[in-house]
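In the design runs reported in the main text, the only information available to the sequence generator was the tokenized backbone. The following block is the verbatim input for one such run; it is reproduced so that readers can re-run the procedure and compare outputs position by position.
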């Protein structure tokens, strides 16, 4: 039986997240790939937090103050939210969406 805990992400999903993070490093606009990585990672605390840390670093690099502050908050709540199963499905993880706003998954 596969491990469906909030701590251990399935291998297939982990590979997709890793692929999106790699795509983000290679693209002129990394945000769409980071948003996809975020959507995939939400149920798993460590991976979800990792994606927000990458978003935080990008916001700092881009000197985007609003996004940086938003990512500090999101990084702090990502792990606990995932562990509790209280994350907003479909949320891209960016400040363009409210912290608790949901959306349909692509």
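Verbatim output:
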């Amino acid at each position: 039986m596969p491990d469906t805990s909030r701590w251990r992400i399935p291998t297939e999903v982990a590979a997709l997240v890793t692929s999106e993070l790699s795509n983000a490093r290679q693209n002129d606009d990394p945000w769409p790939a980071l948003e996809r990585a975020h959507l995939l990672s939400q149920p798993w605390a460590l991976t979800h937090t990792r994606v927000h840390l990458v978003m935080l670093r990008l916001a700092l690099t881009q000197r985007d103050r609003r996004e940086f502050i938003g990512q500090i908050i999101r990084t702090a709540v990502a792990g606990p939210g995932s562990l509790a199963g209280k994350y907003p499905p479909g949320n891209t993880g960016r400040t363009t969406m409210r912290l608790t706003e949901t959306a349909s998954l692509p």
